[in-house]
Amino acid sequence: MLQQESQHTEWKETWRDDHLRWVCGFANAQGGRLLLGVNDKGQVVGLPDAAKLLEDLPNKVRDLLGIVVDVNLHHEADLPYLAVVVQAYPNPISYRGHYFMRSGSTLQELKGAALDRFLLGRHGRTWDGVPLPQFSLADLSAPAMARFRQLAQRSGRLDAETLAESDAHLLDKLRLKEGAYFKRATALLFAADPQRFVTGAFVKVGYFESETELLYHDEVEGDLFHQVKNTLDLLLTKYLKAIISYDGIVRVETFPVPRAALREALLNALVHRDYAVTAPVQIRVYQDRLRMWNPAVLPDGWSSDTLLGAHSSSPYNPAIANAFFRASEIEAWGRGVERIFAACEAAGTPKPMLRYDPYDMWLEFPFDPVYLKALRVGQGRSERVTPEVTEQVTEQVTEQVERLIFALGEQTLSLQELMQSLGLSHRPNFLALYLRPAMEAKLLQMTVPDKPNSRLQKYRLTQTGRRLLEEQD
Prior knowledge:
Blueprint: E1 9-12, H1 20-28, E2 32-36, H2 50-65, E3 70-76, E4 79-86, E5 100-103, E6 106-109, H3 112-122, H4 142-155, H5 160-163, H6 167-173, E7 177-178, E8 181-182, H7 184-190, E9 203-208, E10 214-220, H8 224-239, E11 243-247, E12 250-254, H9 259-272, E13 281-285, E14 289-294, H10 304-308, H11 318-326, H12 336-347, E15 353-357, E16 360-366, H13 369-378, H14 399-408, H15 415-422, H16 427-440, E17 444-446, E18 459-461, H17 463-472
Parallel strand pairs: 1-2, 9-13
Antiparallel strand pairs: 2-4, 3-4, 5-6, 7-8, 9-10, 11-12, 13-14, 14-16, 15-16, 17-18
């Protein structure tokens, strides 16, 4: 019996031109051998037309695939069989306009995002480095550029002279331009609305009572720097409940997932995801765990075990990663996953679980049983925590809601007036983090409750809100 079928070996009893798909698949992968005259048990059964095929096959492969293969004649027990030996090719090989690749012991036809990845990789390009003719300087977000300059100045990873240059020159220095065109990465990093250029470039967050029952959800859009910050704020103010304790007179909030670990996980998901896949980064929050998914592609030969050990830095989106590095949001040494696990260990929370399937990266943070027990003890409590009831859980009033209550005071203000009093300009952020939580906690009431969208609509404190304001004072 011959060598078992594997990544590098395929058996066929006879020859058909359709078998050129396997030759194409070997050429696009790591090379291999197609054995003709061998049955599916690995036994040589002979190839009657072996002599003719020995002459015809090299020419047929050359004419239809454009590559050169070795075709060798062998015998076993006087039975002839052929070995078509295929080398791996650095350029993409197609068969009748279709691209195939050997994966394990199977043949895969590359389509959609997988085909895009393959073709870009064979031409030495990355998805985020492809020019985007539709994007121009008019599509830049001034706040996003200003935020990047501030972060980069603080990090010291770009000199003051570069940061003082025009937007066009700064983007050129960041290698976000190719000839007359900006790259795809520019739209994700600095566009006012990246989804105009990249479908699915946002984060979806949902709270689930079970695997199938969604209670509520939010979407976070905007440039990538904005998405990291606002998603983190949203998780800590709306989706995750904190255990409140006091260190002397200092209020301490303990979350089930450390802030540092959440931030690092978000950065990894948004910086290193495959944006050719149109699904957004998805975060599912349950009562006892938080699960984060992003479409990801690891370098050849890597697995989840590689990520958990010491490994080199090999970003899938190098242009995006470079901008985040210059802003000191990430490090360049491939330590993102290590930092997530280290943050959980330092906080004494359970070890996260990392799972990678082809194009799917799952990171799950289980909640500590002690935290869940404390949460159950505090369910149904509506009073605010005081130093005398430390370690008790209460219905959380966030810092944003407290700011809103204090800004409103005894006034009656419109939505726009409330935003101005808080110095806020981003309406979706204000609604998600300030107004809606305050309304849900029955701290605010509408002046025109029958017409929520009335242009005359204003807001004032409820009796509960006024009591909270007195406590703040």
